[in-house]
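=== Structure Prediction Worksheet ===
Name of assembly: unnamed complex
Input type: mixed (protein and possibly other molecules)
Chain count: two
Listed entries:
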Amino acid sequence: MKQVFNFNAGPAALPKEVLQKAQVELLNYQESGLSVMELSHRSMLYENIQNHATERLRKLMNIPADYDILYMQGGASLQFSAVPMNFLTEGKTANYCLSGSWSEKALKEAKKIGRTHIASSSKEENYSHIPEHLELSENPAYLHITSNNTIFGTQWKTTPELDAEVPLIADMSSDILSRTIPVEKYSLIYAGAQKNLGPSGVTVVIVKKELLKRCPDHLPTMLNYQTFAKNGSLYNTPPTFSIYMLSLVLDWVADQGGVAQIEAMNAEKAELIYHVIDSSDSFYKGPAQPGSRSNMNVTFTLPTDELTKKFLYEASEHGFIGLSGHRMIGGCRASIYNAVPLAHCERLAQFMTDFRTNFM
Amino acid sequence: MKQVFNFNAGPAALPKEVLQKAQVELLNYQESGLSVMELSHRSMLYENIQNHATERLRKLMNIPADYDILYMQGGASLQFSAVPMNFLTEGKTANYCLSGSWSEKALKEAKKIGRTHIASSSKEENYSHIPEHLELSENPAYLHITSNNTIFGTQWKTTPELDAEVPLIADMSSDILSRTIPVEKYSLIYAGAQKNLGPSGVTVVIVKKELLKRCPDHLPTMLNYQTFAKNGSLYNTPPTFSIYMLSLVLDWVADQGGVAQIEAMNAEKAELIYHVIDSSDSFYKGPAQPGSRSNMNVTFTLPTDELTKKFLYEASEHGFIGLSGHRMIGGCRASIYNAVPLAHCERLAQFMTDFRTNFM
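=== Predicted Assembly ===
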């Protein structure tokens, strides 16, 4: 089998052990004679899978008992609408921190629903850092942040401190489970699975039960968080195989020692590549300011477009996959989510060093 | 491996050949060194999968060129809202044919959006047949039907004839690809995949391009059909593995000879079981009226609740899975979607005959 190093931004690398387990039991889950994909979502075998995922996630992330864990569909993009539809009520203002394209998209959807306010933004500095100086509006419905910005390669390093009555809502699609998070400071966390949690097709929502009382009755049933909370995410057929894969990934994280261990490993992986950038005499440049650098998506540029193309071509020849920057900003990007092994980051760091040396 | 006969109502049986192919290439898709789940949705390898599915479906269902094929998430339940949000405009009335619980749910969501009208209903007869005597409202936005009713076991045998300006919209979640359909008579067809198309997690929408002009701009982006049509269903990350499985299932249908051959086989499978019911001297009773009987979900009852329990227990001991009726109405149900082999239906027919004989 071809040896490749997968730095895709999402859908991204999955742990090899997880894929191997899924392969072994693909036609015969727990001696049932059936594939997980063929199980009824109302069967005990399937419900055990989903409950296992929920318990694992609760333990790994230390999610308090007064939070529900929901499995939805449609990715973060549908959450951009679901959040204001559920919580941006008459007379209130939805507050957004703009830290990149994804938070802009979230804001755009909220504007269709009601009044909004930009509480902070680093747009003027080309999103090269996480915005500071939070200024909330009157009557804030909530404050929304994007915890990690895949395109610009920045990441919140702390949790914004808010008055207790202002719900903090975060899109953690690209760094959930990559580091310890004080869940109790958030009212709602959502994440598309396809970076750190599993394959695409399932969206995890962690929500404080108290907040659910605000969901209005008139919403489309499938956009009301209450529907999922009341029915254990089984109001209709969930994406069963994606949730099964999620449960295997969560087992894998536990096997690694848990989130703290994963966090330390992620820091080591990121440091390897940032070190090459910082010691390259500006051959490689990281557009993200050091204090805001993401441990999930390392973005960098080369001196010219020609060199960038050459770098990406040669990298691809060496088995590195997914190193092109987002089509919106170009350059290069290494996405080093949980499942990307340290050894692959070492290979990339070495390749970057060699490429520069050869150029000199 | 345990031999089981899967009659689940959905998620349901998948063709064994499809699961075997998925298993073989689970860690190494087309010698890429990657799982399909690890491919970027912007990679050529993935786009080829999705395009292949689209071309296959277009050919198998004979979908005209002026129709788009979209891949969405959230199942039929989210379509219940998306349809009226996109097409139930001011001054118009959404028309619904009530043929069972799913059409009731579709109507309920439409009522949240605008004015509705029940164009026909068989509710008074306990949904034992497909409703007749269509009476549309003034200014109909569209007419919505549920082509097959999984819970009651009935199925439309013809396509309602409407004036050209009234869009016909159908939920075909449970019988798409099971028989030849005159797609050109429909303006929009939607289907959750988990019965005849693949695993749960992807919703196929077939929509006349002309109709898309009516989608209002102010909708949440992820609920606007235009978003999916304009971006080739790649506005955000689609459920890539589910679409890959769909593409394999479509290849399998082609290998069987196409939809006409599948339809003939489905009729033969259904006839086997209906014949046992009809020749059982009312030991088994089919609540669906003969002219409305579904070839996908065969529902039947036994003389007493005790016998039903005994039947289900013994069936389960013999490896039959998923024969309980829907929790709403009880009784028994054999779901015999495309992937359920004729041999399994023969086994079930024989078991039903033996069970009755033993009881006599």
